[in-house]
## 1
Amino acid sequence: MSLPGGRAASAPLLGHEIEPTIFELSVAGRSAYQLRTTEIPETALSDFLPREHLKTKSVALAEVSERDLVGHFTRLSHRQFSVDLGAYPLGSCTMKYNPKFCDAVAADPGLNSVHPGVPASLSQGWLELLVSLEDKLCAITGMAAATLQPAAGAAGELTGLLLMRAYHEANGDQRTRVLIPDSAHGTNPASVTLGGYEVTTIPSNDRGLVDLDALKAALGPDVAGIMLTNPNTLGLFEEEIVEIAEAVHEVGGLLYYDGANLNAILGVIRPGDMGFDIVHMNLHKTFATPHGGGGPGAGPVAVSSRLVEFLPGPRAARREGGGYFWSTPDHSIGRVHGWHGNAMVLARALAYIDVHGGEGLTRVAQHAVLNANWLRERLRATLPAAYDRVCMHECVLTATWLKNEYGVRGLDVAKGLLEEGFHSPTVYFPLIVDEALMFEPTETESLQTLESLASSIERIAERAKTDPEGLHHAPQSTPVSRVDEARAARHLIATEDAAAR
Amino acid sequence: MADYLPHTLEETQQMLSFLGMDSLDQLFAHVPASVRLAQGLDLAPGMSEPDVAAVFAAYSAANTGQLSQLTCYAGAGAYDHEVPAVVKMLASRSEFVTAYTPYQPEVAQGILQAIFEFQTMISRLSGLPVANASLYDGATALVEAVNMAAGATQRHKMLISAGVHPHWRAVVKTFARGTGHEIIEVPLKDGVTDWASADPSDAAAIVAAYPNYLGVLEDMSAVKALSISSGGLFVMCADPLAAGVLKTAGDWGADVFVGEGQPLGTALSFGGPYLGLFACTHEQIRRLPGRIVGETLDSNERRAFVTTLRAREQDIRREKATSNVCTNQTLMAVTAAIQLGWLGTQGFAEVATRSARAAHYLQNELVQIPGVSPVSTQPFFREFALRLPRSASGVLEDLVGEGILGGLSVESLAGVSDPSIDGDTVDVVLIAVTEKRTRAELDRYVEILRKVLS
């Protein structure tokens, strides 16, 4: 068999030497900056700024040479795992390969040097791009229109809930509750609170799906809607979605689709066809825009026709007879971003969609689901699935037996994988599965990489029998070993100044 | 058909056989047929990268406002500062770009330490002891500040100066639909907030901008006094570059600092991704929104960094979390740390000084032109509002014809006529100057505006 391309065990993650902070590298009087020669008269600040506003002492920053700056941040980058380095099967995060082409598109000054406040006449290319993306996202989700403003998934969720609120209020309808399954991402209940609603939690049944009877019992005229991820966070498709949609619509509620797991259904199933009214997408997951170590993302929200009039504005729109302009819907909830959203992320996502086309996106979902199922089946004897049947783009496995037999927990398995050159799966989520390990291999990992990942997990399970203590102390080959999180929280040192070196 | 899948047809078949299946469709057999797409997506077929590049080249060409064509004087929170090759190259290292949120600290020390350094820099330039790991942008950072104030005071009345960027005020109002906060805008008078016109009793937050969106430097000690008398938090929205020469939020006694971090190394980018800055006092730390990185030790007693005070966050607290934020703008925060590392103590002060100096040089020259007058007589930093003898958008269009992006029309920015400005706002232009502008460019602006208005 060929060798895997997605294993980072031999990668140049540096050894155990601590990298000094930039402040520790600082030497007073050293500098790296160079500015333009402007020939503007060098008047004193106090000539034109009142003394009561002036700072008496400069803000102290690090003082380093350009060479030291490059060395420092390059060494820091060597202490960081990334998709480009190796497989990153972090469940729910869709850490697929990010095509370099999309970054090249975003590096074009014709896009990235445009000021967001210029009139539409000077940014026609941008407006056309945004309209094209909105059209395609609507085609993919089966919705009528979308806002591209929300900067991330959680921002999209809250935007969606405010749309839900605006819709009910326009109907003179005061509703107070939003239903959420117990398997939902934590952002869902947090967004519901900020949307001014109360959370009603719906339990999962023994198949890991929404308990339809419990759902029906919780429904009533005070329910504004339900937030669902489908496939859900167990990687399972909510097979009774049609019945769920009917029941929620029956009481006048709306269905919100959390697009965190959209990668599973691209070009195969559309949220609109399942009965959803509001859909947010995580472009940094499904459409491969790089996640930047925690962001930026982009969380556009698409809606069915009855909600279009409430969308945030301004939105780019096509003018009859040619050209593009900004337009704000009649009953818009208002802005949800300082400008037009994370535009450079939006551009990357459009490039990704254009390369794939409809059929390419379908292949993405098919192979994401294929990879997850292959891994689930391959690990059957080592880490059984929490719910043993066909999954979608991710599988939730459980390490309960390793804990019971050898005292090795899911976290130990996850940390052991780091030593093997793979990123960990998501651990202890969803909360309803004991010793959960959520693997999302994504479609861009090869069979060889998946086989290597499975073999690594088998080795870890073997080691659980012979050397459980070793696993409790894993990883050791990484830049640092297990960190003391309790110490960090007990004695907060969040700045160099608090460290008082 | 282009894509990025590694599977050969044989491998796909081999994997399906392993699952006891013979087609990819079978993977979805458990999905009700009624919700499955029969025909596939209604999208054009995929294109190769060079073909897509040609489509994007056309978008790019249609953006006549790009700065290869124009000298930029547009601002309002988004500024044309120098970002050197070294910052762009370091910030585009794929280890930073293609990582996820640092959930596994053992293999995420690069991002975690860079964020720790970023937090230190933001803490110092805000003059407040704690900064978070970033929020989406300035506007949404202000939303979080307002929510923090509500949590801290158990009150819901927010006094917000009309000097706060109009888009930020709009965003705060949007999110108040959910939280139910009462948003009271306090108008400007001669470019300065007329706090005397507002009733501060029971205020959760007093929100002011420094400088305000017209560029004016208001006396923040008045805001501090109001905050003390009312018991509401003093939230200061500031241009982060201002700290290069002006007093910080901490110097003015603010409880919370929020800012738009775009001036710290991020391209104009048509408005995003930008960088929401947030810092606060120790008293508010348990209510801090978003992630924060702390220093600790690993099991071998080596220094290590980790996200901390996690009990505030949505994945643990769920509906009781301080905020719903999860993904933030980490890469922009790392970029800001690199940019501020490049500038250093001296460079940061120098960029602020040069921007302020150039802005004052230009303003002084422009007001000599007949019919051009300042909107406010108050001191300003690096941006200023001028009244023109005719419609600002018309004048700006004429300037574009001469290769000058001469600023932004206040009315287009605010969306409506701003009642805070005396007279007709249609004629008001907002002009920003950065350290990049040379004397020759400024002199040319003056010359061309004189010509355009004559």
## 2
Amino acid sequence: MKKKSENVVKWILIGISVVFFLLMLVWPLFEVIFRAVADGWETYSAALTADNTVSALQVTLIATVIALVVNTFFGVVAAWLVTKFDFRGKNVLSTLIDIPFSISPVIAGLAYIMTFGRSGWATPLIDKINELLGTDISLVFSVPGVVLATIFVTFPFISREIIPILHAQGKDEEEAASMMGASGFTIFRKITFPHIKWGLLYGMILCTARAFGEFGAVYAVSKARGKTFTLPLEIDALYMAGSSDSITQAFAVSSLLVGMAVIVLVFKNIVEYKAKKKEEE
Amino acid sequence: MKKGSVTKTKSIIPGFGMTMGITVAMLSLLVLIPLASVLAYSFRLSWQEFTELITRPNVVQAFVTSIFCALAAAVINCVFGVILAWVLVRYDFPGKRLMDGMIELPFALPTAVAGITLTKMYSNTGFLGRALERAGIGAAYSKTGIIIAMVFIGIPFVVRAIQPVLEKLPESLEEASTMLGASRLKTFRSIIFPEIRPALLTGFGLALARGIGEYGSVIYISGNSEKNGTQVVSYVIMQKLNAGNVDYEGAAAIALVLLIISFLMLFAINIIQHVASRRTNA
């Protein structure tokens, strides 16, 4: 009797989960694909090869790669600092690093506009530097601005993944290596890196996903379609144009990002699986 | 400021100065100084101007909408998040691996894509939207739509916060409780729930913080109508940055209030995690 009612509860809970899963996560994916090819294959490929789409893809790739490199470097350095040393203000520092994670991306864009925009306080400084170097670099409403906004929103992604791993590992091994005369870089490469390898990769995957999909922060600092637009901004422009053709095009470009998202998920699961296996060894 | 602080116990691991320098420099240049500009900008306003800007009816309404919808979505996510995490940890069924692997889809799928897709799904252009409309529920272009979008982006936070805690919780605990005659509800309430509470609160806090500041996934399905109260705070800020009606002061003032809310929540989450980790270490 008891067993039976337990089974009923089990299948009710599984049922709720499956319905939620299909409705909220699976259906939207198919909706994108279905709408992308609604007007046939030719319209679909034309949308993907349009000049604006190609330019947006380039800007997206540039921003993603730079954000990934910068944040990986920062994440490793910051995680080393926070987990291998004791110093005053460590908790404050950890909290500050996590800021971009919990604030609105629109504020990130706003922050760069107010620093480097027309009336931003750092603008005269940038003008001076441009004058000195004979360059014409603008840090908002430009590709560098898009890159900066992307770095901002993904800033803590990698440190967040490695810090717990390094905390759990402790610092005995590094201390021993240091006593035996190993240099900092050797210690990192030979001792620390093998521990954080999978966590680091996992963080990099999350960072990539967020970077190519960022919308709010980039939208604030990017206004030139075909020049500084990323794929999400191009999708927005197509969708907001409002005609049924352009909405189909918006979904066609979206299908690219759905493809990227699925690749990210597959990678993430492989990395998680490998990390788990290593843990069990 | 932080650079001058002394190490409590001198570490023999090399690299303190260098990593501290790089961390503080990058954090300051990329995050803290730009954010401080928002503060500086809003401090240019007098107190009266500031309060006038943030108490305008449309601004107050946007805050109410953002906070109300984010709260509702976070509560919904807690319910479904616990069920999903429980099912994924405790039961075996076909397709479980796939479900587990796809929980983070909302993190991987760009918010703009999620936004336009959910809009088309739930408005009268979609099968689901039409069915709901016939049932008298207009999901898109209303607060319901905003909540749907926020549930979508918030669900992974809750599931991923609870899952590891449930995995560590031995099944024998529940078995013992049932054997001693406790009902299933009582077992959940007095054995399982206290264990997952800190994780649930963390997930709730993260989902809430994300929802309050959310832009991309919300702005299409919301309809952004001032009359219907479907403008969210991020949308109101973004409107003030658009060419034609640029209002940096107004944007900075609203952003400051939003920042303060976010900081308070970040602070609360850190305290919860701190208390929880002390409890498990004890």
